[in-house]
Amino acid sequence: MDTPKVQILLSTWNGERWLPELLRSLEQQTFQDWQLLIRDDGSTDRTIQILLKWQEANPQRLSDLLLDGTHLGSKLSFSRLVQASTAPCLMFCDQDDIWFPEKVELQCTALRLLEGKFGKEKPLLVHSDLAVVDERKELQAVSLWEYRNFNVGQRKQAYLLNNVVTGCASAFNREAARLAFPVPLYAMQHDRWLALVCAWFGHIQPQPQPTLLYRQHGSNLLGAEPGGLSALGERVDAWSRQADAFLQRFGKQLDVADYRLVEAVAGLRYIRGWKRRQHILHHRLFKQGVLRNLALLLFA
Questions:
Q1: Does residue 225 surpass a pLDDT of 50?
Q2: Are 212 and 237 within one domain?
Q3: How many domains does the chain have?
Q4: What sign for the dihedral angle of Cα 119, 124, 129, 135?
């Protein structure tokens, strides 16, 4: 089977309620040179039966169906999918979303133009806005970016603490896959890690047009709701561990100033209280927005 231009990487887990609608939205894509690469993360419902039935009806659309039966969680499951991929353009796909018909075409075209500008040897990523809906598909927010007050034009340093890239709304090239994966154990999420790597060593291009319905419901692993303050300290520790993983993999490729900045984030988990606040202020480890930074200093 020839390698398609686009492989859509779908990790499933107990998704029988949502999968049929997602698969129908993929079948309606205006760009046709794509295939699904699927890994099931140990489903116990009818997910696998739905996938096998879809495979029977659409054999030309499936690159592979990975059924090892192990529950890894989304981060490592998607990492396995990237490692198994071969296409020049890759797209993450969540089982409960609904793609607009032009999503693959828009993002594949944008990525191809980005490679024409910067070259295929750079890790490149494009990502779009999303329309947020509830489990009944009732609109909750026209724009996730506006709802979460995302600054999608942020500098590379901001990706150490902030993430504005949603995996299911992104597309990335072969070099990004090679450089960022397999994802390290202490990466916060597969898409957040990918964005961090592309921001530092390549380029990220935001697309303001929403390309899918981003469904929010009780079973979502990561939702669109803004996070509370109670877990801010835990998130700071997670930023720190991810920064340390970044240093372990890429430290030799960083200049002195960049190394010290990443090292400053990596050191956050070893200090508490006033010393942590001093550390944040001294190294200017700030998030987006005044209120977020006040919360960081008060509650981290």
A1: no
A2: no
A3: 2
A4: positive
